[in-house]
Design a protein that fits this description.
Layout lengths: L2 H6 L3 H15 L3 H7 L5 H12 L3 H8 L3
Helix pairs in contact: 2-4, 3-4
């Protein structure tokens, strides 16, 4: 068993995706988030974010009244 799996009970890719999602969820702008998290573009970031959260980054911000 890998160290990450032993410590977190997640696969390595699951752990990485969770860390990326945590960072993305605290970001204030989609463009900045996509760039700072090294996504190739906004669309790719938006798809990743929606897959993890169930809502688009815009809807997420709207629901949390960040913007």
């Amino acid at each position: 068993m890998l160290v990450v799996e032993r410590l977190t009970s997640q696969t390595v890719s699951g752990f990485i995706f969770q860390k990326l999602y945590s960072e993305a969820a605290t970001a204030t702008q989609t463009i900045d988030s996509a760039d700072s998290l090294n996504f190739s573009d906004q669309l790719t970031f938006g798809k990743f974010f929606k897959r993890k959260s169930g809502v688009s980054p815009r809807q997420f911000r709207k629901e949390l009244a960040i913007f």
